[in-house]
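Troubleshooting entry. Yesterday's outputs looked truncated, so today I'm pasting the complete records for two proteins to confirm everything comes through intact. If either block looks cut off, that's the bug. Protein one:
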Amino acid sequence: MAVATGEETKAIARYIRMSPFKVRRVLDQIRGRSYREALIILEFMPYRACEPILKVLRSAVANAEHNAGYAPSELLITQAFADQGPVLKRFRPRAQGRAYQIRKPTCHITIAVAPGAEDED
């Protein structure tokens, strides 16, 4: 689904303390759907990643509404992806004076919305 970049409005959340793999699992479910459908899906999915994704989605729609004048009901999610951010490295003490490295991943969530033909059934 190719949309001209002039019509797209996006929002980015950076340095979210969550693995990008876990975030992508949720983003794959809402990509290409309407704003209303995505809200319902995110509301009832059991994953922790839904909360920051919902926040970014609402921000992208608010940007489209305020900056471009689009109605939220006509918006579709054209792009939704999570890039890997910097990894926080921590150490946990182990037996016999050893240290075990703990990797705490972060990610950057990007969601772009654009107006699309909403087909009501």
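Protein two, checking that the full record survives here as well:
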Amino acid sequence: MREEIQKIFDKEEEYPKEERRLYHKDCGETTLEAIINKYDIDVSRDVLKCVMPYGFGMHSGKTCGCVAGPVAAIGLLFAKELPNDNALMKEVTRKWIKKFTEEFGSIDCSHVRKNHRDDILGCKVVQLRAGEIFEELMREYGI
């Protein structure tokens, strides 16, 4: 997963410095796009627009995009057509939230940023670690 996330970071660096902010992807976008790429999930790229509002804890410091992007991916990977037939999806979601909380102490962006954000790399370190944790979780389910 680190490789997929790093590719997204590297792509941003291809743009001239003064334009990079226009191409910067937040935590939700980066994690979801990396998961889509790694697990070859066949969805419209427009799906990424759904997670664009997840940046900076949905612009409120609340639920971190590094939590929310992978939750969206869990839906893509595990959700069944019938809403009441989603016990596995719910289980995976609960495990994801538990693992993220164990690693970062909270799912709130304000807490994660305060305690885990790097002064130089920003939240890239959180995105990379979240990707590793997500990949470990998927291995538990044979994915």
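Both blocks look complete. Sanity check on protein two: The chain has a mean pLDDT of 95.
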